[in-house]
Design brief:
It is a single chain. With 119 residues, the protein is an alpha+beta fold. The protein has one domain: 3-Layer(aba) Sandwich (Trna Endonuclease, Chain: A, domain 1). It is built from four helices and four strands; from the N terminus they run αβαββαβα. β3, α3 and β4 form a beta-alpha-beta unit. The radius of gyration is 15 Å and the shape is globular. It starts with 6 loop residues before the first helix and ends in an 8-residue tail after the last helix. The mean pLDDT is 89.
Length: 119
């Protein structure tokens, strides 16, 4: 039986790896809480600016922002997530769908040389 990872576990694995591997980059990868536990909290969050479709993680790099949507192997984007992706990409930002810790690590490995003075 294949080990299936949840989006929550994937997010935790990615965040902790980044946090522990790059201490100087702490606060540059973060999550915006947009999941209410109940209707009352949901209404409060909406009034505070929480929106549907926002990416799970945001990574701030020198001169660019990367919006990261986490999905399981079989997960798909919601219509709101696709709209958000189009909007951020049209503004010149990067949007990624990541499905594993290894995929995220490969992305970071591939861009680190571009930001040597910051890491």
């Amino acid at each position: 039986m294949k080990n299936v990872i949840t989006e929550s576990k994937l997010q935790s694995d990615i965040f902790l790896w980044f946090h522990n591997t790059f201490p100087s980059q702490r606060q540059m990868l973060f999550h915006v809480n947009n999941k209410a536990r109940n209707a009352i909290e949901g209404n409060k969050f909406k009034a505070m600016g929480v929106c549907k479709g926002i990416s799970d993680l945001i990574l701030i790099l020198p001169g660019q922002v990367v919006f990261i949507e986490l999905k399981t192997e079989s997960g798909i984007q919601s219509p709101d997530q696709k709209i958000f992706q189009k909007k951020v990409e049209s503004r010149g930002h990067r949007y990624m769908i990541i499905r594993s810790l290894e995929e995220f690590q490969a992305f970071i490995s591939g861009i680190r040389h571009l930001f040597e003075g910051y890491w």
